[in-house]
Every structure is written in C-alpha cells, then in structure tokens.
Amino acid sequence: MPARPGKADVDPLLETGRQRLVVVGDDADLSAVALRLLRKNRLDEIAVGYVPTDPSSQVAELWGVPTDRRRAFDVALSGEPRGVPLVRDDAGGLLLGHGVVRRPRGVGYCDDTEALRGEAALLEVRPDPKAGDDTASGGLRVTITRGKLLKRRRTFAGRAFQLGGAEVVPESDGVAYPRAMSRWTWYRHTHDFRLVLRPTSV
C-alpha cells in the first residue's frame, strides 16, 4: 500500500468479524489505518500490529513496540491486543504518537486547567500510557516548553486540550495540517485503538 493509505487502500482488506491487520510503515501510516477503522466503526473488532520503519517512532516508544523489524513482526503476529487511547482532533484527524504546535501564542486548557496563557516555545501532546480504560476521563498528556536557553517544562494530563489564539500549524504524527488554524482541539475518542503489544507491555 502507499504511504498514509486511504479508503481505497484499506477498506478492501477489512473482513467481517474479528480480524488482525499488520501495518509496516511510520506513525502517520498507522494513524491513516486507524482513521479508516474509525470511519468504518471497526475499532472494537480489528486489532492492529505495528512494524515501525522509523526507529524514532513515538508510538513504539510510548507502547514498547520493538523497532527491530524481526522482533516487531513477531509481536505483531503473536502479541496481545491492548486498548490504547485514540486521540482525535476537531478537524477529523487522529493522533497516535506525537502532536506538536510550534511557538503557540494564546490560551490553552487541558480539561478545566489553564495550561498556557501567552507564548511558549513548544506544545506537545501524546496519548497517556497511564490513562485507564475509562474513555470519559484522561487519555492524553500535554507538555508546554517555555524559554530558549533555560527550558522550563510543565506537563498536564486530561481528556482534552484546547488551544485558541494566534494562527498555528498543528502537526500530528509528523504530518502538518494543511493550513494555519486559530483554534485547535485534541481529545480522547470514546473507543480505544486495539494495538497489538508484547504481553509484558503496559
């Protein structure tokens, strides 16, 4: 399949009932497959194994997926499906590993907590490995980095993060949104993504 596969690439592979797919690619490719499962309402039925081609994969780092190809294939084929938080945005996209907003300026809230007012050097959002099974609470972590030489970081945890202010170009799993946005939201979906992991993984 091509990079970041779409409807015509993924949908013909989806069978009825429970199924396991294996994605060989980068985090953006995995997110593209997850998006099709979301659109087809198949998140609860289909487990997805992951063989990352990028050794710096944020999904692999978060969930303990091997970056060695042979070991990753072993896990993808014989591991156990686990529910991991699926983070959506209000523009119809998904985030499975790492979201970035560079030089945000405005006001940001993680749930009801003010996380940002003013400017920052970097804003990062990741699914939270410590989040529980309750999709109505928790699910993502937000890290705000301020300063250039002496970097100061604060991390927040919650179910949703909302940013409003100056126009920015959000990035999800290494893919920049096609235009600048003055408002942006990442939030945990009501169903988790069934990622195949090693039995000893979190």
From TrEMBL:
Protein origin, superkingdom: Bacteria
Protein name, UniProt field: Diacylglycerol kinase-like protein
Organism: Prauserella sediminis
